[in-house]
Design brief:
Elements lengths: L5 H4 L6 E2 L5 H11 L3 E5 L5 E6 H9 L24 H11 L3 E6 L2 E7 H18 L13 H7 L2 H16 L3 E5 L1 H10 L13 E7 L9 H12 L4 E5 L4 E9 L3 E9 L1 E4 L8 E4 L2 H6 L8 E4 L8 E3 L3 H7 L1 E2 L6 H4 L2 H13 L2 E2 L1 H12 L14 H15 L4 H10 L14 H4 L2
């Protein structure tokens, strides 16, 4: 088949800075977003250079914190267009030893392609080739045909997702089913044939991604409003702070009781441990990277082209098959201690194990004293105690509440609620 073009796999929106931005401020942005470099644009929005993390580190080391980045950026930048094919991109990266290529359309910066994006496309190509040849492909998960996913879901729910996808396509957006719904769909696919049946998921998360354009943060809300016109029996809830919307059905004749969250792909940054995150529009990859565990960082593409493709950037599918709860980032439990409770809740509910390093991160987070931030007099985190109590409530309402509490106690995690709180042996007895 034809080689994919940059338009199909580039990342957007692109994080940019101005030539007059200081070295220190540029370094802060790299810390915040985890990038290895930043594009530099002028006041007209035209690309003038790229500054790499390594060069910023050297500048900081020599004490140039307050000088503009324009003296440290590379101005001879190799660029591509949205229509540049994969082999040309690959050739440019190898020939000029560059790790990222800005994508320009009419002199405007519309995206960026990284080495990781290229590797992922090459891997996808091998994946499909191996599947076509019937060769074993351990660890490779080629996309399923679109209709196969539809067979696994209750028909009214699948029809709703198809309508939402069409509305997104008409606006030039991609739409993804993400999180727990994808996890549960995949787990169902692992069941023996006699136990497989179309099933209904009462809580759905959808994410809108700009595909080849930077999205306004309100795109998810716009899609939700449009979808409600198609489904007038639903109620619309808007959450402006996090740029999300929800459509809710209660005892509907076709959809029963259903909650559908629709959000623009976004990234988040925790300004200090245990804080509420600050949220910005981002790409689907960045959106999935902010999730709690690998098994919840899966996405199913609902829009054409490539509808039915399963996105797994962090090894969630192998972890599902190995029945492991693995955190995405070493600092996840320090940034949000409620994830400790979520890890245990998922492990006991699904019959999974905590991956050893993930358990180590939990114990480290507890020893670091993050639970002190739940105290009433800690000014920055008034919402943390409320979020922890909500997680505890979810655990206590589940059938597996006793093993979950025992696990939390063994991890020392009941101290999140109060430093002196410990479980007693009588609590674990049936």
């Amino acid at each position: 088949g034809q080689s994919p073009t940059a338009r199909q796999f580039m990342s957007a929106p692109v994080r940019t800075i101005r030539p007059e931005t200081t070295i220190m401020d540029a370094n802060r942005l790299l810390l915040r977003y985890g990038h290895s470099g930043l594009c530099v644009v002028n006041h007209q929005g035209h690309l003038t250079g790229i500054v790499a993390r390594r060069d910023l580190d050297i500048a900081m080391h020599h004490g140039f914190m307050n000088v503009p980045v324009k003296g440290w950026m590379k101005t001879d930048v190799k660029t591509i267009t949205p229509d540049t094919p994969l082999p040309v991109i690959e050739d440019l990266m190898v020939t000029y030893d560059v790790g990222r290529l800005p994508v320009l359309h009419n002199s405007n910066l519309v995206g960026i392609v990284t080495r990781t994006d290229v590797l992922r496309q090459i891997h996808r190509h091998h994946c499909i080739n191996w599947q076509e040849k019937g060769l074993p492909h351990e660890g490779l998960h080629p996309p399923s045909p679109h209709d196969r996913w539809g067979d696994r879901l209750a028909r009214p729910l699948w029809e709703l997702l198809q309508k939402a996808a069409l509305l997104a396509e008409h606006r030039g957006w991609h739409l993804y089913l993400v999180g727990g719904a994808v996890r549960d769909l995949w787990l169902q696919s692992l069941l023996p044939p006699n136990k497989k049946h179309p099933f209904f998921i009462p809580d759905i998360d959808l994410v809108v991604d700009g595909y080849h354009q930077a999205l306004e943060p309100g795109a998810g809300m716009e899609l939700a409003r449009t979808l409600q016109i198609e489904y007038p029996t639903s109620r619309l809830h808007i959450h402006g702070q996090f740029q999300t919307a929800a459509l809710v059905w209660q005892r509907d004749s076709h959809l029963g009781s259903l909650w559908v969250d629709i959000a623009t792909a976004r990234t988040e940054f925790y300004p200090y441990p245990a804080a509420h995150p600050e949220v910005e529009a981002a790409s689907i990859h960045q959106d999935l990277s902010r999730r709690d565990f690998t098994i919840n960082a899966l996405a199913l593409r609902l829009t054409q082209p490539d509808a039915g493709e399963l996105l797994d950037f962090f090894g969630g599918l192998p972890d599902l098959e190995a029945k492991l709860i693995r955190v995405l980032h070493p600092n996840s439990f320090i940034e949000d201690p409620t994830r400790i409770y979520r890890a245990v809740r998922f492990a006991t509910r699904l019959g999974f194990r905590l991956e050893p390093q993930t358990e180590g991160f939990i114990r480290y987070a507890m020893k670091s004293g993050i639970y002190l931030r739940t105290s009433d007099d800690y000014e920055h985190t008034p919402g943390l105690q409320t979020r922890l109590k909500a997680e505890l409530k979810s655990i206590l309402e589940s059938p597996s509440w006793q093993p979950a509490l025992k696990r939390l106690n063994n991890l020392g995690a009941l101290g999140c609620l109060h430093p002196n709180l410990q479980g007693t042996p009588s609590l674990w007895r049936s």
